[in-house]
Amino acid sequence: MKPRIKKFLFTNGPLLATICIFILVYILGGQLYPAMQKPQVFFNLFINNGSLLIIAIGMTMVVLMGGIDLSVSGMIALTSVASASLLLLDMNPVLVMALMLLMGILIGLVQGFIIHYLKVEAFVVTLMGLFFTRGMAYVINKSSVTIKNEFYKYLALTKIHLPIFEGTFIYITTLVAILLLIVVFIITRYTNFGRRIYAIGNNEQSALLMGMPVARTKLMVYSISGFCSALAGIVFSISLLSGFGGYARSMEMDAIAAVVIGGTALTGGKGNVIGTLFGVMISGTIVTILQFNGTLTSWWTRIAVGILTLIFIGIQSLFYIRKKQI
Amino acid sequence: MVENNCELLRMEKVTKTFPGVRALTNVDFCLHKGEIHALVGENGAGKSTLIKVMTGVERLDEGVMIYDGKEVRIKSPQHAQSLGISTVYQEVNLCSNLSVAENLLLGREPRKFGFIQWKAMNKRAEMILGDLNVNIDVKAPLASYSTAIQQITAIARALEISSAKVLILDEPTSSLDAQESELIFKVMRKLKEKGVGIIFITHFINQIYAVADRITILRNGCLVGTYKTEELSTFDLIKKMIGRSLAEYEDMKKSDYPVSERKLVASVEEIAHGNDLEPTDLELNSGEVVGMAGLLGSGRTALAELIFGVSEPDEGKLEVGDTVLARHTPHDSLMNGIGLCPEDRKESGIVGDLTIRENIILAMQAKLGWFKFLSKAKQYEMANKYIDMLQIMTPSPDQLVKNLSGGNQQKVILARWLAIHPNLLILDEPTRGIDIGTKAEIQKLVISLAEDGMACMFISSELEEVMRTSNRIVVMRDREKVTELPGDVSEQLIMEAIAGSDG
Amino acid sequence: MANQSNHKISLFRRFRNSQLFWPLVALVIILAFDGIYAPGFFELGIVDGHLYGNLIDVVNNGAPLILVAIGMTMVIATNGVDLSVGAVIAISAAMGAVLINPAFGNELISNEILTQNISKTPLPLIVLANLAAGTICGLWNGFLVSRGKIQPMVATLILMVGGRGLAQLITNGQIMTIYYTPYYVFGNGYLLGIPVSVYIVVAVLLIAVLLVRKTSIGLFVESVGVNAKSAFYSGISEKNIKLMAYTFCSFCAAIAGLILSSYVHSADANNLGLDYELDAILSVVIGGTLMAGGRFSLVASVIGALVIRTFTITMYTVGVPANALMAAKAVLVLLVILLYSEQSRKLLNKLSENKKRKQKINEA
Q: What's phi and psi for B245, nearest 5 deg?
C-alpha cells in the first residue's frame, strides 16, 4: 500500500496542498466570523469571482503550455466597453456576445502568431496586447458606458435557487465559469489536444520530434485564452451592467497568482485547472475574510496572495528538485 | 545468395563533406536482418554523420544506399521513418511529465468520439512493453522511472510508429549503470529475435562484447573495417580505434624539465563524486605533462571538474601548494593558480557574443576582481600578444568569438588561461573537432608550457596525442584510475591498461 | 595581422554600428514629426525664473522613467527581468515619506499636524530610508534569483503582487499627502534654471556608466548574460553579478520613487509608479538591449526612455486622446522589437546579399 500512497501524493502533491490550504483558510474564516459559516458565503465565492475564474482557466492552459498571457485584463475591459457601446446601438445582445468572442479569438490568434512564428517572447507580446486592448477600450469610450439592454439585465438579476441548502442561490453567469471549468478539464484530460499542451509545456523540442503539430497547438491555445478573456469580459459587463476601459486592472496578475497557487508551474507541463479553481477560491476566501473584518484594507489581500504565491513557488521548486534526484 | 536475403541496409562508398571538414570518405556499411551491429569510433570519427545520412538528416555527397534490396535516396527524417528506419537518441526525447503509456502512444491514442480511452490506452501500452519483457505501471509519469526505462519507452515508441525494420540506438546506455544497461540489452535481444536490424552506437567496450554480433570501426571519417565480434579481441578493437595512425607529425620532443626540479603543485587524495568517479589519487608536478588516457566516460572530465571546483567531491581532499581547497569554485581555483580548458568549449568555454579580446582577458579580469579594471590599452596588448603567440587567425581582436573556427576558439580559451600564468593547467580534450595542423600546434604548446615549469594535465581520447606529449600517463577506465605509466611506455602497455583484463 | 583597429574605423562608422544609432534615429524621427506637424512643440520659455516647455517636460517628467530604465537595463543584460520596479517605487517612497510624521501602532495623528510644513525626521534621513528600502527589495529579488535559482520573471512577480500591499502597510492604508516643502525639491525644484531631477538623473547615469565601463562590472554582466556557464568557468561569480544587478535596479527605482512622490506631493501606495515596469522594459528594448541579455548600453536605454516620453508628449500635443496612446505605444514597441529581431535581421541580410549579388553580376 505504502508505495502506492507515496506515488499518489507525489503526482498530486501541489494540488492536495492547495486544497488543504483552502479548507484551512475557510475554516479559519468561519471560526473568526461565525457569519461566514452560512452556505451562501461559499456560493458567493463563485458569484464574485466568476470573471477571474474564467480568465484563470484560460491562463492555466497557456501556462501549462509553457507560455503566458498578460493581455487578459485588457481584453475584459475592451470587451465590456465594446459590448456596452454596441448595445447602445441596439444590436442584438446575442450577436454582440458572439462578436466579442470572435474578437477575443482573433486577438489571441494574432498574439500566438507573433509569439510562435516571429519568435518574440510571449511575455513581451502579451504585454503589448494588454496595452493595446486596454488602450482601444479607452478609445471607444473615455468613460464608463451603462448597459440598459433587457437581456443583459435578465442575465444579471435572475437568481437560480439551489435546493441543497436553504436560501442559497447563484446567478446564471456563475454557471458559465463552472461549465467552462468542466469543459476545459475534459479537454485537458481526455483529448489529444489537451495532452499535447502538457507535452509542449514540458519539452517543446521533444513534442516536435514526437510528431506533434506544435505550431497549430500553440496558436489554438492562445486563441482559447483570448476567447476566455472575452467570455470573462461578457460576464463582467453583465455583472456590472456597464463597460469601462479601467475595469479589471491588474486582474492578469491575480489570474497568474491563482494559477501558481493552484499548483500549475509557470515553467509549463505541470498542473491542472482544478488547482486553479482552488487558487481562485483561496484568494476569494481571503477577500471574504477581509470584508467580514471590515477594518483591514483590500491590500492585505495583495500581501497574502503575494506570500502564498511565494510559498507555492517554493513548494514547486522543491518538488522539481526532488524529481531531478530520482 | 544468402547475403542478399538477410541484408537489410547497405551503404557503399559513402562520402560526405562539410565546409572545411571531410566527415566521411568512401565508407561501406552493411546491416543484416536480426543482427545487433555495433558502430564504433571516437568523437569525430564520423559515426553521427553516417547515421545522419542513413536517417535523412543529411544527404550523402557520393555513394549509394541500398535498403531492402532497392537503391534509395532518403529525402528527410520523415521519409526514413516511413521506410522503417527509426532512431533513438542519447537524450530521451520524450515528455517526462506524461505517463509512460502516453509517451508511447501520444498522437495515436485509442479514441472514441475524439475522447481518449485511458483504460484501452494503458492496456495497449502494457502489451507493447510486455512484448519486450518489460512489465511496469504504465500509468505512472515517465519522470518517476530510471533513465533506462525511459530509454526503453523511447525505443518502444520508435518501433511502434514505424514498425521499424532498422533501429538505430545512439549511445542508449551513456547515463545508465550496469543493471540498467542489461535491461536495454534484453530489449535489444528480443527485437533481434523478431528480425529487427539494430545499429548500436556506444563507446563502452564491454557492452559491445555483451550484445553485438558484428562491429564496424570508423576513424577520422574512414572505414577501418567490419568484423565479427567473436573474431576481434578487445585489444585489437581498441588498437584499431585509437592506435597510432599514419598521420605525419614533426618529431615532437617532450618536455625536458629536469625531474629533480619538479615540485608538487597539486594533489588529490581519495577524491570521489557520486556515479562519476570512484576514489582516486593523483599528483601533479611542475614541469610535467600528465596525460590522462582512457575512453569516453572513464571519469577524466569528472576528475578535472572536481579539481577545478565546478563540482564538489563527496569525499577526498584536494591540496594546492600548501592550501587545502574544499567547497571551492572556479574563482578560488583561479586565485590558486589553476586553469581549466573545458571539454565543451561552446557550452562552457567561449562567450560567443563577446570579442576575442574580451574572452582572452576574462579570467585575468576575474582574478583582479570587480574594481581593478584592465585598461583598454593593456587589454589590447594582452590580446595581441596571445593572438601572435598562438597564431589565432583573425583580422582583429575585435572579432566576435562565435565567428571563429573551432581551432581558433580553442586557442582563445587557451590564451585566456595562459594569461593568468597558472601553476596548473588542465586541458580537457583540447584538440577535439580541430584540424590536424592546429592539433599539432596545441600539443607543441602544452609541451613548451611544461618546459617553462607549468604543471599540465592533458586529457585526450586520442592515444597518440597522449603518448606524444606526456611525461607520465594515467589510465582511467570505468570511472576509476587503473594505473600510472611512465611517458615513454609502449603503446601496447597503455592499450592493455585501457582494455583491461578482457583483452 | 591583428592590431588596434579602433582608429582605422571612422567615427561615423563607429557611431553607425553602435547601439545608440537606431534609438537616436527613432528620437530624431519623432522630433522631426513634431517639427512638421506641431511647430509649437519646441517652444521654450522662462517662467518664474526657470526653463519651461515640452522638451523640459520630457526630461523632467521622464526622469523617474529614465532612472528605472537604467536599472532595468542591468537586470535584462544578465538575461533576467524585474517586474517589481513599480511596487518598489511605491514601497521606497512610502518608507521615506512616512518618516515625516511617523505613527506607531494605532496612534492617530491629528490633521493639523499632518498638514504642517514640518518633518519629524531630517530630510537626509528620509532619503536614506527611501534608498535603504529600495536596496532591501533589490537584495530580496537578487537572492531569489541568484541563490534560490528561481526564474527572474517568477521571482520578481512575487514582490510585484505583494509589494504594493507592503507599501500600504507602511503608510497604514492612507494616501500620504506630503506638506513638508523641502521634500518637493526633488521633483519640483530648479537649479540654475534646470530641474533638479535632471541633475539627479545625470548624476546617476554618470556614476552608473563609470561603474559599468571603468570597472570590470560591465564586462562581467555581459559575460553572464551571454553565457552564464562560461562566465562561471572563467572564474566570475555569476551569482554575485546577478545579485548586484537586481539590487542596483531596485536602488534606481527607489530614487525614481523619491522624485515621483516629490513631484506629486504624495506617496500613494496604490498608484505611484503604476505601469512603470512596462515602460521601463520598453525603454530597454527600444534602446537595443536584447531581452536575452548580453551586450547592453545604459545610454541607449536612456534614449529609449526619451523616445517613449517624447512619443507620449507628441501624441498629446497632436491631440491624440490619452487613451489611444496606450494602444499606439503597444504597436510602436512591437514594431521596434520586430525590427531588432532575428527574423528581420535575416530578412535584411538576404536583401543586402541579393543587392550585392546583383552588383557583382553588373560588374562582371
A: -95, 180
